[in-house]
Amino acid sequence: MNVHDFTAEGWPPLVGLRITDSHGSIDMPGNKLAEFYGKITRTENGCWEWQGPQTQAGYGRLNITNRYWYTHRLSHELHTGAIPAGMHVDHLCRNRICCNPAHLEPVSAQENTLRSPVAIAALNAAKTHCQYGHPLTDGNLVSRPGSSGRCCRTCHLWHIRVSRAKKRGKPFETEPPKDVAPQSSSAARSEVCRNGHRRTEENTLQTTSHRRCRICAADARKRYNERQAVNV
Asked: How many domains does the chain have?
């Protein structure tokens, strides 16, 4: 295929004409390459701003073989090389219509999101404190089932206390504590049950899956019997 020498017009040399998207690979037609360069305006800050059609999100697009291709991805493949499978092309200049290959970098989808100045995930990742002012440090973080984000341990424990108090009809804290909840060591937690009874051999009921405190078990059985007596 004979392709016009666009380097004579000041454009950087091509590394290839093979372009790829999720539907497959084709060779960039010469007329579409001319259209690509013809719809770009170079700005003083170095951006190559696309003047043609754009997506609703503001990215440039070019119709080739009856389907649209992202112009920034085209520029990267034409001037830099193939984009690794599964990678996104991030605009280092934060200008979505820019096609300057020097302003483009392939990154993972997660990295591309975290670099965004407006993405919710990026904004949350940049937070240093929760909404109540507790620091989001390693000692005050807890993982929750089904959640991949960071959770304040102090607020998490407060919500648990409030939930238990409401179920039992007891008074509860209407506001979260101001100070970060102290974190006891695993050794200290293993010596007592959650109600403070010592885990001695005589006070431990060992099942196939976990240990139970005999005192707590006896109290639970007593409360159960009292409820049954009232219901009779």
From this structure: 2
What is the pLDDT averaged over residues 29-34? 93
Q: Of 99, 86, 98, 74, nearest to 16 (Cα)? A: 74
Where does the pLDDT of residue 32 fall: very low under 50, low under 70, confident under 90, or very high at 90 and above? very high
Same domain, 104 and 209: no
Lowest average pLDDT, out of 95-99, 192-196, 211-215, goes to 192-196
What HEC string does 20-31 produce? Answer: EECCEEEECCHH
105/152 same-domain check? no
Asked whether 23 and 65 are in contact (CB, 8 A), the reply is no
> Structure pTM?
0.56
Shared domain for 149 and 227, answered yes or no, is yes
DSSP 128: S
Rg, C-alpha atoms of the chain:
31
**In-domain check, residue 132:** no
DSSP string covering 150-205: -EEHHHHHHHHHHHHHHHTT----SS--SSPPP---HHHHHHB-TTS-B--STTEE
* Of 149, 150, 145, 134, nearest in space to 183 by CA: 134
